[in-house]
User: Which sequence fits this backbone?
């Protein structure tokens, strides 16, 4: 079992809908990540939050909007998505590079499988 | 920009065969290196990691990897594979200064019983 919890596990939405993906971890990690994974492809980095501040945005379209309300929670708000955005969205956490004990080891959730119709 | 290359995209082996999966990275500075595994229908999990020290690292389930700095490589090995090793294997790299972790394209390993 993973210590990173993602909800919902499955989501189907239309192109005009607004929905959110949620992620929670209680390992005290101060870095949290969103990755996108298409079938038979590697995870692609989307966003990184370090100490609740957005530290990395890999040129992700604005129809994806991340939010980190506190050190345990990470959201991904979705609006006006396209069918090609259908994928498995993975949340991960790790110790932050700023902590001095940075290992870069990621702890992944099981993902939210998104289908855009 | 850092990058990770995995040379084998799909590997098919029989049980008890030896395994070596290649991984090369491009960053010339200090790096942390990882192998992650994704079993069918399961989430990504860490197989092993290298930060510093002994370049030969041992992970779970009998896997090991060797960091060769001069070759920018971090190849994954297992002397004798099992059917349960069927999975996708990803090499990943992190520059030891920020939170960015980049994955290689993955190697799909299929073990024949």
Assistant:
């Amino acid at each position: 079992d993973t210590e990173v919890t993602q909800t919902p596990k499955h989501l189907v939405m239309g192109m005009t809908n607004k929905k959110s993906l949620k992620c929670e971890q209680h390992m005290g990690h101060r870095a949290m990540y969103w990755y996108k994974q298409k079938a038979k492809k590697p995870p692609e980095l989307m966003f990184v939050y370090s100490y609740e501040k957005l530290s990395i945005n890999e040129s992700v379209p604005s129809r994806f909007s991340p939010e980190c309300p506190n050190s345990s929670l990470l959201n991904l708000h979705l609006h006006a998505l396209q069918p090609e955005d259908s994928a498995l969205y993975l949340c991960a956490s790790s110790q932050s590079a700023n902590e001095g004990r940075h290992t870069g080891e990621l702890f992944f959730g099981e993902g939210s499988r998104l289908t855009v119709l | 920009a850092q990058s990770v290359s995995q040379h084998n995209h799909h590997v098919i082996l029989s049980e008890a065969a030896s395994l070596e999966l290649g991984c090369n990275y491009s960053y010339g500075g200090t790096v942390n290196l990882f192998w992650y595994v994704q079993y069918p229908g399961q989430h990504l999990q860490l197989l092993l990691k290298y930060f510093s020290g002994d370049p030969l690292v041992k992970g779970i389930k009998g896997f090991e990897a060797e960091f060769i700095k001069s070759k920018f490589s971090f190849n994954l090995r297992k002397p004798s594979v099992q059917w349960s090793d069927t999975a996708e294997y990803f090499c990943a790299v992190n520059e030891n200064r920020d939170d960015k972790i980049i994955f290689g394209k993955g190697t799909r390993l299929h073990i024949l019983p």
Summary: The mean pLDDT of chain A is 91. The first strand of chain A starts at residue 4 and ends at 7. Chain A touches chain B at residues 2, 31, 33, 40-45, 48, 50, 55-56, 90, 92, 94, 96-97, 102-106, 108-111 (CB under 8 Å).
